[in-house]
Specification:
It is built from 14 helices and 22 strands. It is an alpha/beta fold and about 500 residues long. Strands 1, 2, 3, 4, 5, 6, 16 and 17 form an 8-stranded mixed β-sheet that branches. It has a 5-stranded antiparallel β-sheet with strand order 18-19-22-21-20, with helices on both faces. Strand 16 and strand 17 form a beta hairpin.
Length: about 500
C-alpha cells in the first residue's frame, strides 16, 4: 500500500502537539498525531490539572479539616483526570475523540523518523509508515533521576505517583525546590504528612523572582514543611530510617528521611530514539540543539513544547504548537518570549514576567524597581494576608515596564496586566492613567505605576510615596492617605 501523506505528522500528543494539530486542522491541513502514552500528555493527567485540584483541596482542608478530607480529595482528583475508581491510570480517550472529530488521524505507538519526511509508527506487532511535509516533535519531558548512589533501590515518586496517590504517605521527602516540588510539598503538608524539601541552591523556586522565592519558603515553613536549602542528596538507603522510612545522606553531613521520596530535581527530554539525525542534527553532545524556542530546526522539522525551550510551561507549549504551524504555512510570525509569564500555584500564588532588576541591568537597561507590601495593602488587609509583595521593574529610557513579580492569592490573574504591558510596550504613563478597581491587587499595581511615572519625571520622587505602608510602618507626622488611596 502507498504510505499515507500528511501536511503535518506530530510526534507527541501533549499540549504542544494538540495545539499544533488543532491549528493545522483550522488551516485545512492534513494531520497525523502519534503518541506512545497518554493523548493529552502529562498536564491533564499527572501534571497541571490534578496538582491544582490537590492544591485547592489542601487549602479547603487547611481552613476546616472536617469539611474536606483526603478521601474526598482523592475522589475529586480522580474525577478531574478521568480515572475510574478501579483503575490505576487516567483514561485519555476524550483527547483522541476530540482530535479525530477535528479531522486528525491518531496513532497510538512509538514514532521514529526514518528519513526526511518519513515517520514510522510501531505498536504491538504493527508498523505504519507515514509521509510528512512537516514533522513536529512534541515529545514533552520526563522527570530526571539524579545519580545518587542507592536511589535506584527505592521505588521513588515522580509527579505521576504524587498526583495520583490514593493514600497519604506517612512522610514525604521532596528532592528539588522548583514548582513541582514546592506545590506538592504544600499539598501533603496541609494534609498532615511530615514533609521535608531539599534544595541544592540557596533559595526555592530558583528561576522565579527572589522575592517570590522568599514568600514561597515562608509559606511552606508556616505549613510545617522542613525547608532545607544549600544541601543535596549524596546517598540513599532503602528503608534505612525510622519506622521503615528511606534514609538520604546529605552534602552537609546530615540526613533526611521519607517513607516516600519525590523527585523534582528537573526534567529531561526523550530525543535520543526519534531519528533526528535524518535532518542533520548531532545527538552526540549534551543537547541536540539550543533550547532557545526557535521552533524550526531544519526545513520541514519543528520542535515545540518542553524540548524546544526556553522554559517549561503548558502555556508556552500551546503557544509554540500554534506558532510552529503558522510559521510552516507561511505566516509572517516569529516566536516572542519577552512576556512569558511564570506562575507557581502555592498559597499564596507566585507570578513573574520579564526581568528582575538585576537581569534588566545585566541586559544594559537603565532600570529601577518599586515594591509594595501585599499584606499591608487594602487587598491584603481584606483577605488577612500574612505575607506577599507586588514588584515592578521599569526601563527609564523607554518608559515602559520590563518586569513584574507578585506573591499574593490572585497573582496568576493579576500578573497578566503586566504581561500585556510588556508585550505591547505600553508606556508607564498610560498604565498610571488607567483606572483599577479598588481594593484589588491590580489597584496596588496602579499605585506602583503612579510612582513609576513620578520617578521617570523626577528621579527619587517615588521614594516619598507612603500610601501603601501600614499605619505602624508610616513615619510619624506622615499625612494619612485619602479614601481609596489607603493601602493601595
Amino acid at each position: 500500500m502507498t504510505d499515507p501523506t500528511f501536511d503535518f505528522v506530530i510526534i507527541g500528543a501533549g499540549p504542544a502537539g494538540e495545539a499544533a494539530a488543532y491549528e493545522a486542522r483550522r488551516r485545512g491541513a492534513s494531520v497525523a498525531v502519534v503518541d506512545r502514552g497518554w493523548f493529552g500528555g502529562s498536564c491533564p493527567h499527572v501534571g497541571c490539572i490534578p496538582s491544582k485540584s490537590l492544591l485547592d483541596s489542601a487549602a479547603r482542608h487547611a481552613r476546616n479539616p472536617a469539611s474536606w478530607t483526603w478521601p474526598e480529595t482523592s475522589v475529586r482528583r480522580d474525577w478531574i483526570v478521568n480515572r475510574p475508581t478501579d483503575a490505576a491510570e487516567p483514561d485519555d480517550r476524550s483527547h483522541i475523540v476530540a482530535l479525530e472529530e477535528a479531522g486528525a488521524v491518531c496513532y497510538r505507538g512509538v514514532g521514529r523518523i526514518l528519513e526526511r519526511g518519513q515517520v514510522e509508527v510501531r505498536h504491538d506487532d504493527r508498523v505504519h509508515s507515514l509521509r510528512a511535509r512537516n514533522v513536529v516533535v512534541a515529545v514533552g519531558s520526563r522527570s530526571r533521576v539524579p545519580p545518587v548512589p542507592g536511589l535506584a533501590d527505592i521505588a521513588v515518586w515522580t509527579n505521576r505517583q504524587a498526583t495520583l496517590a490514593r493514600e497519604l504517605p506517612a512522610s514525604l521527602l521532596v528532592l528539588g525546590g522548583g514548582p513541582t516540588g514546592v506545590e506538592l510539598a504544600q499539598v501533603y503538608a496541609r494534609f498532615g504528612v511530615s514533609v521535608a524539601i531539599l534544595q541544592s541552591g540557596n533559595r526555592l523556586a530558583p528561576t522565579d523572582h527572589p522575592r517570590n522565592s522568599a514568600v514561597i519558603a515562608d509559606a511552606l515553613r508556616a505549613d510545617g514543611v522542613d525547608v532545607r536549602l544549600g544541601v543535596r542528596a549524596i546517598a540513599a538507603e532503602a528503608r534505612g530510617g525510622r519506622d521503615g522510612a528511606h534514609l538520604v545522606r546529605l552534602s552537609d553531613g546530615g540526613t533526611a528521611e521519607g517513607h516516600e521520596i519525590l523527585l523534582a530535581v528537573g526534567r529531561e527530554f526523550p530525543l535520543e530514539e526519534l531519528g533526528l539525525e535524518a535532518y542533520g542534527l548531532d545527538l552526540s553532545g549534551r543537547t541536540a540543539f539550543p533550547r532557545d524556542g526557535r521552533l524550526r530546526l531544519a526545513e520541514g522539522l519543528w520542535v515545540v513544547g518542553d524540548p524546544a525551550g526556553p522554559e517549561l510551561h503548558t502555556h508556552q507549549a500551546h503557544y509554540q504548537g500554534e506558532t510552529a504551524v503558522r510559521m510552516a504555512v507561511g505566516d509572517a510570525v516569529t516566536p516572542d518570549y519577552r512576556a512569558l509569564p511564570r506562575v507557581t500555584y502555592t498559597d499564596p500564588e507566585a507570578a513573574f514576567v520579564g526581568r528582575t532588576l538585576q537581569g534588566a541591568r545585566d541586559a544594559g537597561l537603565d532600570a529601577f524597581e518599586l515594591v509594595a507590601d501585599f499584606a499591608t495593602s487594602a487587598r491584603g488587609y481584606g483577605v488577612q494576608a500574612e505575607r506577599g509583595h507586588v514588584t515592578i521593574v521599569v526601563d527609564r529610557r523607554s518608559g515602559t515596564l520590563c518586569g513584574a513579580a507578585m506573591a499574593c492569592p490572585d497573582a496568576s490573574a493579576a500578573i497578566h496586566e503586566c504581561v500585556l504591558a510588556i508585550k505591547a510596550r505600553i508606556p508607564v504613563e498610560v498604565l498610571a492613567e488607567t483606572i483599577h478597581a479598588f481594593p484589588s491587587t491590580s489597584r496596588i499595581l496602579n499605585g506602583l505605576f503612579a510612582d513609576a511615572r513620578r520617578e521617570l519625571a523626577e528621579p527619587g520622587a517615588a521614594d516619598t510615596r507612603l500610601e501603601w505602608l501600614a499605619p505602624a510602618e508610616r513615619p510619624a507626622g506622615a499625612e494619612e492617605p485619602r479614601g481609596d488611596e489607603q493601602a493601595s
